[in-house]
Amino acid sequence: MVSFNKFFTSVYLAVVYATVASAAPRPSPVAPPSTHRVHELGKRGLKLVAFNPPSAFETFGTGIEHPTSDSFTESTLEESAVAFIQDRLNIDTSDIAYRTGYTEDETSHAYVQQKHDGIAFSNSVANIAFKNNKVVAFGSSFVKPEQIAKSTPSVSVEAAIATAEEALDGKFNDVEAKLEYVVLEDGSAILAHVVQIQNDEAETFYAAYVDAHSGELTSVVDFVAEATYYVLPVTKEYPTEGFETLVDPQILAASPLGWHSDGVTNTTDTSGNNVVSYKSALTSTTPQSAPDLVFNYPPDLTVAPTTVGNVHLGRVNTFYIVNAVHDTWYLYGFTEASYNFQNANFGKGGNGNDRVRVSTQDSGGTNNANFATPPDGQPGQMRMYLWTRTTPQRDGDLENDIVIHEFTHGLSNRLTGGGTGSCLQTTESRGLGEGWSDAMADWFQQDENLEDFILGGWVLGGGTNNIRRYPYSPSSTVNPLRYRDVAGTTLVHNIGEVWANLLHNVHIGLVDAHGFDPTASSNPDSTAGNAVFLHLFLDALKLQPCNPTFVTARAAWIQADANRYGGANRCLLWGVFASRGLGSGAVSGNYTENSAVPDDCVAE
Ligand SMILES: *[C@@H]1O[C@H](CO)[C@@H](O)[C@H](O)[C@H]1NC(C)=O
Ligand SMILES: *[C@@H]1O[C@H](CO)[C@@H](O)[C@H](O)[C@H]1NC(C)=O
Ligand SMILES: [Ca+2]
Ligand SMILES: [Zn+2]
């Protein structure tokens, strides 16, 4: 966490320097991949890389003073925003165009564009938040272009439209064309005619940017969204944290045809290549609420989960979570070849026809959930139940940690022993299985603060309610569980708690060492501690033997680190395991504790 913040600050400073330094030469901007999107366009497969300058972002806690702090209430939002940017970036007010803004919950948000000769920049923007007359946040991709094109076009708008129609295989839709500046990756700003091009048959709809001096198509904005879901984002645990509208959350590297196609059949409901979410019968899915894969079923948590809208929401949320988790795991190595759950495998190995079936609000039980993992090639079966501790009852389908816990049984059972679904059968290994499931739910819902983690709090009524005996925590006061506590119990969840808490602490150790990356779930190349953790998690499952023990599961983590990171985290891992009695002399079978680490890991 510490190192990530440092990194972030230095990036910000570098960007601000580039912005305010006037004549001084600067290196060409090194654009991270997130500033690019490659579009494949039209019938000719034309490829265009759209560039968006990196956005610097600063937050200021309770806020900082700004030029109109003292007169904020008499100033318009536009005046305050323009004055702040003018002061902060040291640029002329004529280069700043206020676009829009609003005030909500005592916070005012202003959205601004860069401008030159009265013409706005399309991809150079800023946003400012004011609270209590102070600035609390500032984001900016403003640039100081090295070259800027003349503001009078030398190519006609008609010629620009013809170029765009040809390249994008569509028709100009008569929405008035406009002139805008566009910043390119080389630091220059071109003048562009912006025209909208549509093709209803091919379902394409673009804003095309045609250089108003050279006549070339330089960039596009793609308006077509593949799908929209109103759900609880996978990074949140409880419905009380707020549902959100997510547009195109699928990761194409993991689900190449999106979430609603297996290459043969395309769907418009909560069934797809990775999962089908249904109620009572496999065919009883939730349809899109509007065309083009919009799934918008807002919750009403004041009425029973079994009311129609809430049933829909349960299916949509589990459909989304299983897909999102499928995609993240895929990037970290749970693929067709390593026996994952998909109907079509696109020729990439493994057995197909085994997408996950999620039975939502299943009537077979209450106050629980489960997941059955048959061998690769047969569908995984998740059953989610209603919880009866509250009035109205609560639906486990809406509590993401429970859904992720269950799906992780599929991960651990398929990766251990090579897809048989038969290698977590002993009491100890089933206990470890519960531990992986809790630890995975914990991983998805952490941010850089790595707080103590409670499982199943909301379905039990919220507050400090916890399905487990203790929160997961590095503190031995909050969570005293140690390796020796495995002795004498055959309760798999109690055994799992020991393992999950060890992994919680491994996660903290890795993030302390390597920082936290909030994009890790879609970025397996990240070197941050949370990404390292997930790699080791999956790698170790693949390495460990059939029916592992704490001792062999520990050895698999250490080997996974040797394989992937050359043992860079070996002593860190030993240190965490030893801290709770799973040191190098710990004994399997009778659970005798030991706090030793290998000699080369002994601190000086
Ligand atoms: C089905 O969906 C895929 C992926 O979005 C798309 O490429 C394909 O054209 C669609 N097929 C039909 C018949 O609509
Ligand atoms: C645990 O097992 C080990 C190895 O078999 C043995 O040496 C040790 O005495 C045992 N400890 C206890 C407390 O039973
Ligand atoms: Ca499979
Ligand atoms: Zn479980």
Automatic annotation (TrEMBL):
Enzyme class: hydrolase
Compartment annotation: Secreted
GO annotation, cellular component aspect: extracellular space
EC code: 3.4.24.-
Principal subcellular localization: secreted
Keyword Hydrolase set for record: yes
The family this protein is said to belong to: Belongs to the peptidase M36 family.
Listed name of the protein: Extracellular metalloproteinase
